[in-house]
Amino acid sequence: FMWIWQKFLSTCLVLRYSNGESSGEQIPTILAWTPAFGSHVYHTWFQDRLRDEKCPKQCKFVPRVHERNHSIADYDAVVFHSRDVELRDLPKSRKSDQLYLLFSLEAPGNRAEETHKWFPPFYFNRTVGYSSLNDYVYDYDRLVDANLTKDAVKSKNHSILAIISGCRTASGRESLIKVLWAHLNITLRGSCYGKSVSGDELDNLIKTHRFVIAMENSACMEYVTEKAFRYKSLIVPIVLSRKLVKDIIPADSFIAVDDFDNVTEFKDRISTLERNEDEYMKYFAWMKREDDFGIRNKGVCKLCTDLHNRRSLIHSSLANAVFPDANLCERRIVDRLLEGETRVEWEQFVFKGEVLTLIFLLFLFIRRF
Ligand SMILES: *[C@@H]1O[C@H](CO)[C@@H](O)[C@H](O)[C@H]1NC(C)=O
Ligand SMILES: *[C@@H]1O[C@H](CO)[C@@H](O)[C@H](O)[C@H]1NC(C)=O
Ligand SMILES: *[C@@H]1O[C@H](CO)[C@@H](O)[C@H](O)[C@H]1NC(C)=O
Ligand SMILES: *[C@@H]1O[C@H](CO)[C@@H](O)[C@H](O)[C@H]1NC(C)=O
Ligand SMILES: *[C@@H]1O[C@H](CO)[C@@H](O)[C@H](O)[C@H]1NC(C)=O
Ligand SMILES: *[C@@H]1O[C@H](CO)[C@@H](O)[C@H](O)[C@H]1NC(C)=O
């Protein structure tokens, strides 16, 4: 009897569902199939975005645990976080008007499908990522209100803060930091320098430093992570390239190393800003303006709106979505700046050191016999 009763209930549920849809009042529901960054509740991030974007449409993002109560066919879209997709664990059935969304906030080269390429062909309908070339944009962060007084600057008696956890990167930032470190006062933190930083410590470091290194592990178009968004905590980010960040954070809120011809010029600028309060305060001019850097026009709201209108979408144009920004990375920014710097000698030194170590080991090895 219980079984029949349950069947009856679920049939009612399905009927109600279809009725709602035909009357056009159904709220689209999006299922988060995979976890993301170890989180099984990141559907809430999407939900929060939708609210922050003041979207006139409503959508509901749900975690996969809810799938047990419903059939996968009940969802209007399914989100797959690129790095967490398991081929063994893809949905067993699929409806033709359902959108499959590929989501990643990683730079090109660090996404699963770029290294494995094992998804079935024509699997995803749309992409969600930080680049505006995606169908839907998901920024790392957004502009908020803040106020800095001259007093706040007084506590900033240290120069540059660097919190680095990726030690060997595609952008080569570690080489540049090494050279800058010889010329400037840089506080080195992060697992790369054997000193991890807690949340409280981070706040304190930001309060006492004027600049923060915000060079990404990959120098790619629009790849701007939380590092550069630290400008909101009233510190001046040092990024690799102006061109790559220009549409994401205010143009006068950061220092870009590719604005300079060489390390000497960069060093002079930093020294000026350490001494000249007025000049330094210019980096916070964004606070007095009404910049609209918070909302890019293809965010989660666009996704939600499209789902409301999806019956009118042209299906054939939606098959086989891949991330569109794979070739938009720069390899030469650090190299150009370091031309003629002492880095080459340092590398030679390391090389010589390795050779000497090898000879020494060989010597020990031979001595044993
Ligand atoms: C789905 O089922 C779980 C338990 O399996 C329950 O905790 C949850 O509230 C249900 N969700 C909905 C929307 O019915
Ligand atoms: C910044 O200052 C303005 C005017 O003094 C004030 O209206 C606003 O609320 C302040 N914002 C924050 C985040 O403190
Ligand atoms: C910076 O200021 C703090 C107090 O705000 C003080 O403890 C520290 O010694 C100062 N450091 C330098 C290098 O002046
Ligand atoms: C680094 O900081 C110390 C102490 O604050 C200062 O004496 C020195 O001139 C600074 N060096 C550079 C290169 O700015
Ligand atoms: C750095 O660049 C500036 C401006 O182009 C130039 O005047 C200066 O000679 C350069 N310095 C070095 C050490 O190459
Ligand atoms: C999404 O892609 C699949 C596979 O290519 C396709 O069958 C489906 O119709 C597409 N969905 C939409 C809404 O166009």
Strand order of the largest sheet: 2-1-3-4-5-6
**What's the total helix number?**
12
Oligomer: single chain
Instruction: State the helicity in percent bands.
Output: 25-40%
Strand content is 5-15%
Mean pLDDT across the residues is 82
The succession of helices and strands, N to C, reads: HEHEEEHEEHEHEHEEHEHHHHH
**Low-pLDDT ranges:** 1-23, 343-349
Bound molecules: 2-acetamido-2-deoxy-beta-D-glucopyranose
* Count of separate structural domains: 2
Beta strand count: 11
> How is the biggest beta sheet arranged?
6 strands, parallel
Terminal CA distance: 83 Å
SS-based class: alpha/beta
Shape: globular
Q: Please state the CA-atom Rg, rounded to the nearest Å.
A: 25 Å
What do you see in this structure?
There is one protein chain. This protein has 369 residues and is an alpha/beta fold. It has two domains: 2-139 and 298-324, no CATH class; 150-288, Rossmann fold (3-Layer(aba) Sandwich). It has twelve helices and eleven strands. Strands 2-1-3-4-5-6 form a six-stranded parallel sheet. The model is unreliable at 1-23 and 343-349 (pLDDT under 50). The structure holds 2-acetamido-2-deoxy-beta-D-glucopyranose (6 copies). It is found in: Golgi apparatus, Golgi stack membrane. GO terms for molecular function: fucosyltransferase activity.
